[in-house]
């Protein structure tokens, strides 16, 4: 088929037309032609992430209209002419950490901050990937998983075992990768060290089990929700602190005398300041949760210097997802990684807005949109 062919496949998708706003269930046309480095994927499941929610609420910049969703599991339907390591029928998971393999960041092993990662999701092609009523529709992070079919750059997907159910495989590419990777790849927590985690949603729960896998001796979970704290114990927390009932900094200090690592998975100035206050001298607080636009971080300058404390951002678990996602899948199949309890609700595409409402109310670890028989 030539690049100029107008052939397209009509599918259902959830489109964000305005922000703040709710998603609109509609039909879009997916281009049947593929660029050499693209793959077409039939989506089986797509997790709902707080990053998506921030976009719906107008807290993250996004070009509209667009299809959100980046935690994707699906089946390969077609591959471009340059794709020789994926085949039709392969089960894949997607990750927004696309990489070119050639820039300075990629050549020095930091593919998760590839200098061209945003461009790869907007590949120069003769016609848009998605169209509605003749007008282009974007894909958040170049993925757009809240669609029955999506077209992706080859360097955004990796093959995963079919033994991992689709609704759990979808979460590997963001919530699990970010949480576990932040501990193992980013902070490099060592056996015997102590950890506190602020925020026990989908990513925070995976930070907890990353600390457990790394061999941390004390893992303190901090959250406002008693239900999430109870779930946190299943993911590896040795202690829990209900910050709606007590001062979290005082509680963590009394439990541990100060911890070696604090992971803030909320992304607000107050939680980051609390994270620094929970540390032992000479240790680092890790910013995992993404602050909304305009959020400014206020830190205690004197104690930062006199106690030699640090704050560092961690993006997407400092991952190399072609290696990390299959490893995480194997850990799940060995019963060493908890994914089953991570999926709190499954909803069809028609109920995607209700899924985001559950997140707003703090009633879900991870909501997953499932398609068809997945």
UniProtKB/TrEMBL annotation:
Cofactor or coenzyme needed: Zn(2+)
GO molecular function terms noted in the UniProt entry: mycothiol-dependent formaldehyde dehydrogenase activity; zinc ion binding
Gene3D superfamilies in the cross-refs: Medium-chain alcohol dehydrogenases, catalytic domain, NAD(P)-binding Rossmann-like Domain
Pfam families cross-referenced by the UniProt entry: ADH_N (PF08240), ADH_zinc_N (PF00107)
Domain of life: Bacteria
Assigned keywords, A-Z: Metal-binding, Oxidoreductase, Zinc
Record EC number: 1.1.1.306
InterPro entries membership: ADH-like_C (IPR013149), ADH-like_N (IPR013154), ADH_Zn_CS (IPR002328), ER (IPR020843), GroES-like_sf (IPR011032), NAD(P)-bd_dom_sf (IPR036291)
Enoyl reductase (ER) domain ranges (all copies): 21-369
Family: Belongs to the zinc-containing alcohol dehydrogenase family.
Cross-referenced PANTHER family: D-GULOSIDE 3-DEHYDROGENASE, NAD-DEPENDENT ALCOHOL DEHYDROGENASE
Name under which the protein is recorded: S-(Hydroxymethyl)mycothiol dehydrogenase
Organism whose genome encodes this protein: Nocardioides dokdonensis FR1436
Organism lineage: Bacteria, Bacillati, Actinomycetota, Actinomycetes, Propionibacteriales
